[in-house]
Amino acid sequence: MRRRRLLALLCVSASLLSGCGLLPGGSERHTVTVWLMKDSASQEFLERFTEDFEHDHPDLRLDIRIQEWTGIGDKVQKVLAGDEPGDEESNHPDPPDVIEVGNTQVPQYVDGGRLLDLTLESARDWGGKDWLPGLAEPGQLRYHQYGIPWYAANRVVIYRKDLFARAGITAPPRTRAEWLHVTERLDGDGTQGIYLAGQDWYTLAGFIWDEGGELATEEGGRWSGALERPAALRGMDFYRRLHALGDGPAGADEEHPPQAGVFASGKAAQIVAVPGLARAILDSNPALKGKLGFFPVPGRTAGKPGAVFTGGSDLVVPRSTDRREGAIAVVAALTGARWDTDLARTMNYVPNKAKLAPAVAGEEGVAAMAAGAAQGRATPSTPEWAAVEADNPIKAYMTKVLTGSDPATEARRASARITEALTVDAG
Question: Which of 3, 105, 309, 372 has an alpha carbon within 20 to 30 A of 89's alpha carbon?
Fold first, then answer.
């Protein structure tokens, strides 16, 4: 029996009823425990949401517990498996009824049938067909929806308005061809047209998807790498051409060195990053205040931004919860239009549906991010993808191509390594 039930039984005085979470008349006010990640939502937002939710659901009480991203994967797995009762380190043994997880983490939690299937609610009540694909697709397994999209973030182009103006460029590019032309005009006289690290594989993934390619494909229940296919090779070729218009290292990713610092030094006209990185840039170089602009990663045609990797969070419900209806009510409220757009405005996120993007139109960086999110994608929806990223062959492939190796040969090698990592031994 859960600790909260025992607590209710200990209340023997009428004066203690409200403190024990009981409603007038003696009915129990059930607690729904929610795990949210640190910095996903402000304390002020959570207080407003809790007050409103409990007002609308007088039989429920919210207990929101903030979790750290570090080590969260193992912690969630243990809770779902029943190996840990809950948040022991905070003296809170009750297991969670709702959990925020990274969108690409959902496949590893679906394994074993430990998440509640929310397909019916998604289709009937929540407008699931309108969700951003980069959030919705990783939450699915064989057309069943387990992860419910909450918020998204993705890369845009952060650029120097003053350097664009000095080069006579009056508007951001809208196609990839225009982007190359503009970047070439910006490259020179001590300025990089773009700072693009050689192993920024999330950005490469967008170019591959834009060409109609994939990182990996599934056939007959088996996954295999797909970098050697013509569409994926075209995406890599565009990356190579763009990378050549700057001095980004061929053998490092965007964190080595941190590209915010490189951009803040004033030696680059553009970077590809989430808009929030602008804060770190301005902290390093306040003289750039008012000089930064944002535009969506350009696509192949002017009518549609380029594909981008979508990060963000989904909400899941453990199948073992004994607060099923309460948990579903929390998910419905947090991911519904009212609170989802409120969170997006509060935290500069992208809402979970493209049609909600006008809610963040007032922020240039977030508006650019929302435009790109409509073309957002996620990594292959298989639990084994984590093994690919652990020893990422895509990074090594990119470096090989950027330093002159044959793209087709290196793509075949990288695809073979991806296939090996994705292959599960049935025996």
Answer: 105
> In this structure, is residue 17 part of a structural domain?
no
Average pLDDT, the chain: 91
The rounded Cα 196 to chain-centroid distance in angstroms is: 21
Same domain, 99 and 228: no
Angle between helix axes 230-243 and 407-422 (nearest 10 degrees) is 120
pLDDT greater than 60 at residue 10: no
Tell me what percent of the residues of the chain surpass a pLDDT of 70. Answer: 91
Asked if 144 and 160 sit in the same domain, the reply is no
Q: Are strands 140-141 and 144-145 parallel, antiparallel or unpaired?
A: antiparallel
My answer on whether 298 and 339 are in the same domain is: no
| Cα 42 from Cα 383, distance rounded (Å) | 30
The tally of domains found in the chain comes to: 2
Q: Which tokens in the block code for residue 187?
A: 């490259």
Q: pLDDT for 129-139, tens place per residue? A: 999 999 999 99
Residues 380-425: pLDDT tens digits?
Answer: 989 899 899 999 999 999 999 999 999 999 999 999 999 999 997 5
Q: Does residue 7 lie within any of the structural domains?
A: no
**What residue spans of 82-195 are helical by DSSP H?**
106-110, 119-124, 133-136, 161-166, 176-186
